[in-house]
C-alpha cells in the first residue's frame, strides 16, 4: 500500500473525532451515580458556584524516511464553564462554551481547516473522593453548534462525560488538574486517544491540556444576637438592635438584609464580618411568633438563613389601650408602663370607672373628680402591680400567664372621704372595696412552667418533639378568687392620683379539677416512635387556695430513653410562696429506678362487667402492645419487654391458636435494642412481626443522633404452629433514622408495612429537614422495594395506615404547614393514597386555624376506607370519599388529644368504634364511642373500666361475632412524696413502674355510659 493511501485511510479514521460528528443521541443520559453519599460536612468539594475553563493543544508532524514532512496536524481547543456544586457533591446546574479549531494537512491533499463553537447547558454530575483528591464527572444534556466552517452532515455533538481530575488537595478557592472526555459512542476519541492514534502512524506529537476553576464566595450567617428579650407589645415605639455575624467566605463584605415575618427586607449596616440592624418594633406588621431571617449577598451570590428568633409580638388588649403604654428598657427586658386619667376631664360628680378595666368589671362609682390609674407589664412574662399608683391588682403578662376577670355587674366599692372634698391643698380620701370575685386562669404549657425545658428542646432527636407537643398539651384550669383593695387618693408630686394602695386576696380551686385520687386533670400525648409527654394538674396539697401543681413526665420509649418527672407549682396571686419548678434531669437509657421482673401469667378477671385476661405482669409502661387477628380465631400479641438494659427494648410474642395462649417467645435479637413492634398475619397464615431495631449500642451519656440514625426497620416471620422464627431481616439499611413501623393487612391476606424515615434524625421532622412516610408490600417471602408515600412531613406527631388490597394503601398524617413547630393551629391532615397506578399526589383534607391531629384509619366491612381525626374540639371523619367529611363527635363530647393514641375499629354491617385513652377522675381510662349505621350517629363517649389506674397504648381487633378484643398496658395510680426546690414537701400523683399486659373483650352490643359529670380537663381548648 502506498504512503498516499495510508494517509487517506488515516484521514478517514480520524475525521469524525476531529469534527466532533457521531451517532445521534436518542435521549438525555442520566448523571453518573455516586458510590457512597457524602456526609453533611461537604467532604468532597465546598458547595458553591465554580467558574473556570479548560484548554487542549495538540501539534504534530510526520516526516518520511528522508526527513521530508508529509503531514501536519493541529488541535487548539479552549472552553469556559460554570458549575453549581452542592454539599453532597452533586452538580446541579452549569453551562460550557467550547471554541474548537482543527487543522490537518497531508502532502498532495487540500488542507482541512475547521473552526466552530459549541454551547452546552443542563449540566448534571457528581464529585467523588475525599478532600478534593479525586474528580468531578459532568454531563451536559443539551448542545448547540455555532459557526462551523466545515460540514458535519447535520449531526449533533456526541454525548459524553467530562471527567475533571483534581491535581491535589483543595487550596483556597481554586481547583484544577487534568481532564478527559468519555464519549458514549466507543468510536469517538478524546484528546489522549487522538494523540496516540497519530503517534501509531508515525507522527511526532506534542500535547498539553488542563483545567482550572475558582469557587465564587458564598456568604453565610453564622450567628445572631439581640440586646433585648423576644417578647414585646405590638405597636409601641421600641428599638431592638440585632447583630449578625457573617462569614463572607474570603470575599469582601457585601450586603445584608434583615427580614421579620411578612415584613419587607431591611438593609443592615455591614462592618467587616458584622451586620447590625436597629429594628423599630412599632412598624412591624403581624402579631404572634414572627420568624426572623437574614440574607447575605456578595459578588451577586446570596444566601438566606431562616429559623432565627422568633420575635413574639403580643397585641395590646383593648382595655389597656387608654393607658398609652411606653417602653422602658431595663437590662435585656422591657417594662411597659402607662397611666390613665378617669375621666379625662375632671368632674364634680360621680364618675363611673369603665367596665373593661382589668380585674374590675362591673360599674364602679366614685366621688373624686378624677382618678389616676397605672398599669405595668414586662417582657419577662411576669404579673406586676404598680405600688402606690393604682388600685388595680395584677397587670398584663407577656408570654407566660394570663389573668382574666369574670365578675358579675354591677360592683360598688365603699369610699370614705377624709375631707369634705378634694382640693389642691392636699385633700385625700380612702377607697375600700368589698370582696371582689374574679377568676384566675393560668395557662400551663410545658415551656411556661418547666425550668430548663429550652435546653431539652435544643437536644437532637427529641427536642422538636417536645416543642411540637408544647401547645398541644397547653392546659388551663380556673381558680375562683376574691380581691379587696384599699387606695389612698390625693396629691403626689402635684399630680392627682392614688398615692397609696393595698391589695389582699384569697383563692381556691374551682370544681373543674377533682380532689379525688390522684386529684387532678390529666392530659397525655404520644408522638410516633413512642415519644410521650404526659402531665397532670392538681390542687396544691395542704394549700388548695394557693395554686396548682403540674407534674410532667417525659418518655421516649421508642428510643429506650426517659427523663425523671418534673414538678412545677403555679401560684395564685398574693400567695406567700413563689412559683417553683423542679429541673429536668438528662435523658437516661432504661428505667431511672428499680425495674420489676416481667413474668408471664394467665389470669382471667372481671372488670366493670367485662372479661379481661392478664397475660403478663411487671412490664414497662412503654410495653406498646400490638394485636393481630388471623384465620380460625387465631391471634398474635407483641409488646416491648424489658431487657437487661432495664429499657423496654426487646420484642416478645404470644400466640393464640383459637383455644389457648402460648408462652412468650422473644423474636428480636439479643444486644440489638428493639422498639415499637407491630404484628400481622399474611395470606399463608404466617405471623409477621416488624419493629425498629438499633444497630448501635445506646450512649450511656445520653441520647445521641448517632444512636437514632442506627435505627432500621427489622422483621421476622414466625410459624404459628411451631412458634419458630423461620426468617428474619432488615427492610431498611441506611444512615437515616427508620422507626415507628405499622403493619396493616386485609382479610384476604394482603400485607403492607409503613414506617417513618427521618434524614435529620428527628422524631417529628422540620421544614428544613422533613421526615418521610415509606411503605413496602409483603411478597410472601420478603418485602418489595420501599416506596415514598409522603416526603414533606414536618411536626408530624401522629399518623396511621390501612391496607385496601395488594395494590391499595391509605396513609393519613398530621403535618405542620408553616414550619413553626411551636404553633399548633396550622397543623393539618394529609391523605396519601396508593392504587394499582401508584401513589397519587398528597391530598390536604383540612385548611383552617384550629389544631387537627390524631388521624385514625380503618377499612369497613364493605371495603371502604374510613378516617377519623380530632378537629379542634370536635372529631371529624369520612368514609370512602375524601370530599365527604363530616363532624362525628361534637365539642360536648370533650374528646382530648389522647385520640391520637387510639384506634378506629371496623365491625360488621358498617359499624365503627373509636377506642382511645383519655382522662377521668381516676387517672386515665379507655374511652369508647360507637357509630350506629342504622341511625347514622355516634354514642356519647364514656370511660369503659373506671379503675384507679392508667390504661394506655390500646390495640384492637374485631372478632367474627362483632366483639372487639383490646390489648393494652395498665399501671396502678398512686401518690409519692416529693421535695420541691424551695424545700416544700408534698405528694404528687404517680404511676407504678410495673404495668400489666391486658386483653379485654368488649361485646358488640356494649356501650358505656357516663356515670357523672366528667372531670377531665381537655388539653387545648380553643
Question: Topology of this protein?
Answer:
Elements: H1 3-19, E1 48-63, E2 69-85, E3 90-106, E4 112-128, E5 135-146, E6 160-165, E7 174-177, E8 179-183, H2 191-200, E9 204-215, E10 220-226, E11 231-233, E12 239-247, E13 255-260, E14 266-267, E15 269-271, E16 274-280, E17 288-298, E18 301-314, E19 326-330, E20 333-342, E21 351-353, E22 364-366, E23 371-378, E24 414-417, E25 429-432, E26 436-440, E27 443-444, H3 446-449, H4 453-457, H5 463-472, E28 475-476, E29 479-492, E30 495-509, E31 521-526, E32 531-539, E33 547-556, E34 561-571, E35 580-581, E36 588-589, E37 599-607, E38 610-619, E39 626-629, E40 635-642, E41 648-656, E42 665-666, E43 674-681, E44 687-694, H6 705-709, E45 711-719, E46 724-730, E47 737-745, E48 751-758, E49 771-777, E50 787-793, E51 799-803, E52 809-816, E53 827-835, E54 838-839, E55 843-844, E56 852-859, E57 865-871, E58 874-879, E59 886-889, E60 903-906, E61 912-920, E62 923-932, E63 937-938, E64 942-943, E65 949-958, E66 964-979, E67 985-991, E68 995-1002
Parallel strand pairs: 11-18
Antiparallel strand pairs: 1-2, 1-9, 2-3, 3-4, 4-5, 5-6, 6-8, 7-9, 10-12, 12-16, 13-14, 13-17, 15-16, 17-18, 19-20, 20-23, 21-22, 24-25, 25-29, 26-29, 27-28, 29-30, 31-32, 32-33, 33-34, 34-35, 34-36, 37-38, 38-68, 39-40, 40-41, 41-42, 43-44, 44-45, 45-46, 47-48, 48-49, 49-50, 51-52, 52-53, ...
